[in-house]
Amino acid sequence: CMDANSSPERDERETVWKRCRAMNGVKSVWDTFFTAEGHARSSRPVATTNKMRGPLSGQANKIGHHMSHVIDHIFYRGLTFDGHVWGPTTYESTEEALRHLIPSPSLPSDHYPVVCDFVLPLPTFSLQSVSHLHAVAVFTAILAVIIWAAQSSINRE
What we know:
The chain crosses the membrane at residues 132-150. It comes from Haptolina brevifila. This is Endonuclease/exonuclease/phosphatase domain-containing protein. This protein has helices at 16-22, 94-99, 127-156; strands at residues 2-3, 27-28, 46-47, 49-52, 66-69, 72-73, 75-76, 80-84, 89-90, 116-119. By secondary structure, the chain is α+β, with helices and mostly antiparallel strands. The chain has two domains: 2-119, no CATH class; 123-157. A two-stranded antiparallel sheet has the order 1-6.
């Protein structure tokens, strides 16, 4: 998971998106929206930020520049992506995006949350490993009680 400040559509030969997607088996939660090369799959862009810097910005060259891109990423391998819990946020047009700039009173960040569900593979257990895990759990519980009792007696003194 990262705020890469780098969108998949960037023209540079090497980008965060291209490097991560080129790794063996690595996928992105944005694969529905972008190819591995970073090309948009739809004419309706998706965004994790939609902002315009104002006159108090410390980056004077970006004042008044509208930025609406995917710059927050979750890359994964070995899991099954089960969908976005929040969003993804899209706009019909630049005009619509400009009417919904963030941060705002309802979203006090300049990034939309990227919240996703993944299906985690369940481990397989043999009866022997379950017995071992049970013994470890019982030992851990006994150890926790001993530590708690020791701390309680120290606190009483």
